[in-house]
Amino acid sequence: MTLVVPGATQRAAHSTAPERPTWLPAWPVASILALYPLWWALGLGVLIFPIMAVPMLVLLLRRRAAGRPLRLPPGFGWWALFLAAVLISIVALGADPAGTVVEHATDRLLAVVYRLGTYAALTVLLVYTGNLTEAELPRRRLVKLLAWLFVVTVAGGLLGMVAGRFEFTSPVELLLPGDIRSMGFVQSLVHPYAAQIMDLVGGEKPRPAAPWGYTNTWGNNFCLLMGWIVVAAWGTRRAGPKLLAVLCLGVAIVPAVVSLNRGLWIGIGVVVLYVAVRHVLMGRLWIIGAVALAAAGLVVALSATPLGDLVNARLDNGKSNGVRSFLIERAVDGFAESPIIGYGSTRNTIGGRNSIAVGESSECRRCGNFTVGGNGQLWQLMYAHGTVGTVAYLGFFGYGLWRFRRDRTAVGIAGSAAIVSSFSAMLWYNATPTPLAFMFLAYALLWRNHLEGDAHAR
């Protein structure tokens, strides 16, 4: 049953006080999604989420003060427990686990504040989107906005391919003092660039990142958004949108392969398999033929183009495997040492996986000092927030999948597929901020799909 926060006491019948509007405008959510390329170019990018959370929170509080109840998403108790675990784990911020760089708690506070602020802002986004009615923000429009962001992701991937070293100084970056904007963490927030340049298969090559900042985030968002373009296109009877969607998905194969992102490839497989199983269970056996045809087309495309050579080269060169294994071991060891509340945040290792003497330097920024908890949301949850935080986080999304399991609509299947893909992605991708935002929007669509079936729930 959906949680409801009681409204304010009804005003007296003869009160002369002006009525406060109880409707919620769609622009805080719509502007984030529709204008995201602009926010990225301005240097606001992921910062737009906490910025827009402020008016969203004000509007929610104003509506509740006007006497209209505030709905909370099903399973919100799990998410509230997670937020509490994040706060409580801060008490361990000063601890220095074995094998990590010794720092003062205050040196780690900036990342903690940023992460906590992100969780709070995205929580507001979830509640606000779930409280919007069909008249305020139709679900079809929200689906189209998410589909638009998939198109933006593909376009960013193509940009990263053809202009891998493209970057520029954003207006927000120009406003910052030089010593602040030169910080790596700040650069990742305000400095737009098309791709990350890495040596994975022999020689440095660009890996698409725009407009999401990192190649791994680009791949994660690719999987979370790809289903929505199908839902948006097949939600209309016109042939044009369907043709454009198929064309976009076909073109998307190229940057997806060039990204050399094995996690993305697995994520696409998880989404396709989940959607196929859901359709088979509903008796729609035609999906088997559709998947087989798409798979055959993909095999032909890889065999007839240089893309196949890239896939084989990436599978034969697992340079990151050793680092990932090393960091997973460190995360599990740290979890065993502080299993209840974790350490409040990530930690940097002393040296690299082969020697404590190997560390970051001006000549080698990627040498050693790896981040424990930086190679997957699951490992970060375990290491930073312990059992309580991990169980609560997984409990919230797991509850949502169970609660909305009977939703057989296109929105229901796509929303569930996005959340399922996030469970596989958390083994190698971190979720904040944009992947978690898209997970929340998928959750909100599932929640609203459930509510719209009951006229009294609006």
From TrEMBL:
- Specify the superkingdom: Bacteria
What sections of the protein cross the membrane?
A: 38-60, 72-92, 112-133, 145-166, 218-236, 243-258, 264-281, 286-307, 382-402, 409-429
**Kinase: is it a keyword of this entry?**
no
Does Transmembrane appear among the keywords? yes
May I ask which residue range the UniProt record assigns to the signal sequence?
Answer: none
Name the UniProt key words of this record, in alphabetical order. Membrane, Transmembrane, Transmembrane helix
Its name, as the record gives it, is O-antigen ligase-like membrane protein
**Organism whose genome encodes this protein:** Pseudosporangium ferrugineum
Please spell out the taxonomic lineage of the organism that makes this protein: Bacteria, Bacillati, Actinomycetota, Actinomycetes, Micromonosporales
